[in-house]
Amino acid sequence: MKKIVIILSVTAGAIAFATSFNSCKPSEAITAKSGAQIWGETCIRCHNTPSPDTFSDVEWDVAAMHMQIRANLTADEIEKVTKYLKSAN
Ligand code: HEC
Predict the structure, then answer these.
(1) pLDDT, the chain, mean
(2) 3 contact partners, CB below 8 Å, separation of at least 6
(3) What's the CA-to-centroid distance between 33 and ligand 1, angstroms?
(4) Cβ count near 40 (within 10 Å)
(5) Is the model's pLDDT at 39 over the cut of 80?
(6) Residues ≥6 apart with Cβ < 8 Å to 52
(7) Cα 43 to Cα 2, 55, 69, distances in angstroms
(8) Residue 28: CB partners within 8 Å, gap ≥ 6?
(9) Are 74 and 26 in contact (CB under 8 A)?
(10) How do residues 69-84 score in pLDDT, each as one tens digit?
(11) Which of 41, 50, 67, 80 could make a disulfide contact with 35, Cβ separation 3.0–4.6 Å?
(12) Residue 84 contacts residue 36 (beta carbons within 8 Å)
């Protein structure tokens, strides 16, 4: 009986470790999204999405810095969104 308990707890520990290790990595579904897609899905959650030509490149850099924090996006995600916005302004 003792052996079974030990085996179970080791297995549970290994699963917990593997899960926590994995959760640091953004999912492939998110990584595969384009800047335009992230922009369309994320930036309308709180306000109307300003169209790309609303701001200059420099203004988008500043807005992106604020909105990365507001929208809780990774550096990679906000970079893609900013690239998209700058390519279309
Ligand atoms: C969690 C809510 C939230 C999300 C998501 C969000 N925003 Fe915002 N946004 C705000 C708030 C609140 C303001 C008001 C000003 C401030 O707090 O900086 C704002 C202001 C702005 C402004 C300034 C508007 C102006 O007319 O001066 C821009 C540009 C902007 N957001 C762009 C974006 C973009 C692009 C995204 C997507 C990456 C985004 N926002 C996602 C909450 C959000």
Answers:
(1) 84
(2) none
(3) 20
(4) 14
(5) yes
(6) 60, 84, 85, 86, 87, 88, 89
(7) 54, 15, 12
(8) none
(9) yes
(10) 999 999 999 999 999 9
(11) 80
(12) yes
- Phi/psi-derived region of residue 47, left when phi > 0, alpha when psi is between -120 and 50, beta in every other case: beta
Q: Which of 47, 55, 73, 84 to mutate to test the pocket of ligand 1 (most atoms within 8 A of CB)?
A: 47
- Residues with a CB atom less than 6 Å from ligand 1: 39, 42-43, 45-47, 50, 63, 66-67, 70-71, 81
Distance 9 CA to ligand 1 centre (A): 46
User: Cα of 68 to ligand 1 centre, how many Å?
Assistant: 9
Which residue is listed with tokens 């300003």? 50
Contact 62, 69 (CB under 8 A): no
Contact assessment for residue 34 and residue 80, using Cβ atoms and an 8 Å cutoff: yes
Q: For tokens 């917990």, what's the residue?
A: 16
